[in-house]
Every structure is written in structure tokens, then in C-alpha cells.
Amino acid sequence: MTTKASQKVLVLGGSRGIGAAIVRRFAADGAQVVFTYAGSADAAQALATETGSTATRIDSADIAALTKAVADQGPIDVLIVNAGKLALGDPLTLDPKAVDEMIDVNVKAPYFAAVEAARTMPDNGRILVIGSTNGDRIPFAGGAAYALTKSAMQGMVRGLARDFGARGITVNSIQPGPVDTDMNPADGPMSDYMHSFMAIPRHVHASEIADYAAFLASPSAAMITGSMQTIDGGFGA
Ligand code: NDP
Q: Which domains are delineated in the chain?
């Protein structure tokens, strides 16, 4: 078991994909898991029933509601910010609203949720965000806005690690490459192209991200902070 049974874990964006795998992993380890969702109420309820976790509808784009929801949880041992948006396209025609939404959900929400959680987080707590290998490398056109959000996370992770380190709180990012989810299905039209960049040409399984999240939440990872942990099959190598 990687996590303590008494650990309280809040996963932002847990109803599907990587977030759902993280909910499953931490719940299986015995943690008390609360997760948020925005649109997938049926999936969220089914996952809550399956895992014994608690689902709550909070749109991460609503920063005031998100901040209140984090505060309402009381002290959280582990905060995992997984909720994210992806909008790709020619920047000359990409809908500015979609870019704004990405910045809200991928940048503002992680920052304000992390700061709010840190107010009451016990010593040696954990803050983990799900970034992207595209924070380091964007080897195709049309990804500038997405990449800027994931690069922004990197600065946040480094800075907050400094802010909270004296309390033993670690702040890290997991940076996946292509992961088989609704956002990026392994049988999608872009798969062969994406695999062509990879040393190991397959999508990452969501459970492989969740397993690493559990490690980062464990006492063994106490000295890993301010870091980007890339799990991308060599996409950025
Ligand atoms: P999915 O689109 O499959 O799932 C996204 C999850 O986030 C859902 O549970 C969704 O909930 C939740 N979510 C999205 N927007 C909001 C919001 N505004 N408020 C609350 N919850 C929200 O994505 P993935 O699982 O693939 O991606 C998860 C994270 O991993 C993202 O940050 C993404 O950028 C990152 N990532 C993914 C990669 C991939 O290849 N899949 C690669 C690199 C990084 P609901 O359905 O209820 O709205």
C-alpha cells in the first residue's frame, strides 16, 4: 500500500480518463478520496459508487467556486489537479474563447486551488498537477496555446515548491505523453503521427500515470519537489 488509509485526497477532474485512474488507485490504497467533475455526472456517480469515493460537481473554470470548494474540504493531505482542456488549431483561427477556457482550467485553476489547499495542508502534504510533455516540446503545429498553459504550470510548480517547502509540502508535475483517454484515444486519427515521435511507440495507460502519482504521494518521494516528472515513452527525448 502506497498511501496511508487516513490520507485525504482531493482530485480535481476525476470523472474520466487519467483522473478516474488516479481516483481508482488512491481509493484502492485506502485513501479517503473526493473528486470533482464538470459535465460527466453519470460517469462521476458510477466511479464514486465503484470506489467508495465522493464526487462533487465543480467547474474548474469558475475560480471562485473552485476556491470555495477546496476551502470547504478542510485540511487535504494530497491535492491532485488533473482537470484540463485541450484546444488545438491554427492560432489565426482558433476560437479565443477556447484559449481563454484553457488558460482558466489549465493555469488559473491549478494555481488558485494549490494556494487554497496549502492554507490548511498538513506538513509533508503533496500538491501534484498533471502537466504535459508539451510543456517542454511541441513538435507539431497548432499546439501553441495548449503548450503555453502546460509551460506555465512548470513555473508555478517550481515557485510553489519554494513557497511551501519549509513545511515539507512537495509540489510536482507529472507530464504525460499521449495517454489513451477520451481526450486522445489510442485508436484516434493522430495516433500513428504521435507514435512516430516516441521511443516506445504506444499510448501511455492512464493507470501508469496513476501509479506514479501514488509514488509521488508516498513518503518515499519526500525529497522530490519542484520537478517535472515526464512519462511519455520518449516523446520528448
Ligand atoms: P479527458 O478529457 O479524458 O478527461 C478530463 C477530465 O477532466 C474529466 O474527468 C473532466 O470531467 C475533467 N474536467 C475537464 N474540464 C473540467 C472543468 N472545467 N472542471 C472540472 N473538471 C473538468 O482528459 P485526460 O484524462 O486525457 O487528461 C487529463 C489531464 O492530463 C489534462 O490536464 C490533460 O491536459 C493532461 N494530459 C493528457 C494527455 C493525453 O494524451 N490524454 C497528454 C498529456 C497531458 P467532466 O467530463 O466531468 O467534465
A: 8-230 (3.40.50.720)
